[in-house]
Amino acid sequence: MEKAYLFLVIGLIIGLAVGIAAGWFIKPTPAPTALCAYPRGKFTEPPPPGQEVVIVHGFDANYPPFTVVLPNGTPAGFDIDVMKWIANKYGWKIVFKPWDWATIVTALEKGDLDIIASGMTFNAERSKKIWFSVPYYSYIHEIIVRADETRSVEEILNSGEYIAVQLGSTADKWADRLLNKGYNFQKLGLDSYVAALEALLDGRAVACITDSAFFNPYIKQHPEIADKVKVLTTLGAPEVYAIATRPEDKWLRDKINEALEELMHSPKWDELLEKWGLK
User: Looking at the domain 140-238, which fold is it?
Assistant: First the structure.
């Protein structure tokens, strides 16, 4: 009896050890979503075959030549044409949705928009919340003053007067950066670069901070104001525009990148740059 009992105990111990070892080697692999830094999103994976892809394109309604809304309500601009080309390539449907620039990133995060293509700067602060496509346009920030202005940059920045910017823009961030360095001016926040330039022209501001991507084409299209303003100085290094997506929408971002690279290596790209005064 004692021997039988001993053999039984030994058998149970061996069986338990084998079971634990087998369980370790054949344990199920965690689902891919458990290993991802972001949850699955609307466009993480390709849609089922035959399903229509609808992309909600958020944009600034008054940022020529990249995105504007014409008097008849039609969206137009360089970025509008780019997104139409991409949509045509893949057979997507685009819903164009103008949005307040100060809250447009939040709208993308919440799902009110699927992309932002509207001359949006690819930078570190925004990349904490949203992810970008490959860059497609380079520009530099500028301080613009009236043509008869004789003061230096330092004098303008320490004038105590208003400098106009578009709220929520990178120009707005430049104004904050300069104020934090100790310069003495007041920031006049407006809803567009166009409004900031108008504030300079009508005397509400002593200067405006803008960028070459807006200013150079705008001056070409409005020669009547070309002699009324001038670039006082540039700010920082060149920056780039890219199309913004939610981090989890990998499939959508990959498709946009593929299309952008194809478009930028085609004659059509130069045609679009020429059309919108960006060359």
Answer: D-Maltodextrin-Binding Protein; domain 2 (3.40.190)
